[in-house]
């Protein structure tokens, strides 16, 4: 029996401060999870290896067709003025099985881009953020939970991969 595509991303919705933006979300770029590394080649080594120094910035962006004062007002010059957005999505298997996807993200709204406004055209709004918190669930199961300010990174096995580092630092 032939197997078709698995967990094909089908749809998404955005929630912010209790409001749903169903029917308005155009696109969403989740943060790229990428390790910050430096190259090291010590004496006695044949080649260099990468040493992990942490995680690169967690930046995200999404666009909606909604000239929403709630979203436009999400930007603030104050440090610690974090916003929490929830992006929910749906993936579907070839056999029709539906898997819910949920990304919760908090951080600083860096840009509110309204683009060029034209009479008779959709008003698009793009929000760009730098995150201090990121959680991703697939089918209700945690894949990653990263809390930048509290130095924790919980993986899909429920292990806080930074516990040893925090402990060594007395945190």
UniProtKB/TrEMBL annotation:
InterPro entries: Tail_tube. Pfam families: Phage_tube (PF04985). This is Phage major tail tube protein. It comes from Formicincola oecophyllae.
């Amino acid at each position: 029996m032939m197997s078709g595509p698995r967990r094909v991303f089908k749809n998404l919705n955005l929630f912010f401060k209790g409001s749903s933006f169903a029917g308005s979300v155009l696109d969403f770029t989740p943060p790229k999870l990428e390790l910050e590394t430096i190259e090291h080649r010590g004496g006695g080594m044949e080649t260099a290896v990468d040493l992990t120094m942490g995680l690169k910035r967690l930046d995200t962006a999404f666009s909606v067709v909604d000239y929403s004062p709630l979203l436009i007002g999400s930007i603030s010059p104050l440090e610690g003025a974090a916003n929490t957005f929830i992006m929910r999505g749906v993936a579907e298997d070839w056999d029709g099985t539906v898997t819910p996807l949920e990304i919760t993200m908090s951080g600083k709204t860096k840009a509110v881009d309204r683009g060029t406004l034209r009479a008779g055209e959709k008003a698009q709004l793009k929000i760009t953020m730098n995150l201090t918190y990121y959680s991703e669930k697939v089918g209700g199961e945690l894949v990653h939970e990263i809390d930048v300010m509290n130095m924790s990174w919980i993986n899909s096995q429920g292990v806080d991969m930074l516990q040893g580092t925090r402990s060594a630092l007395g945190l």
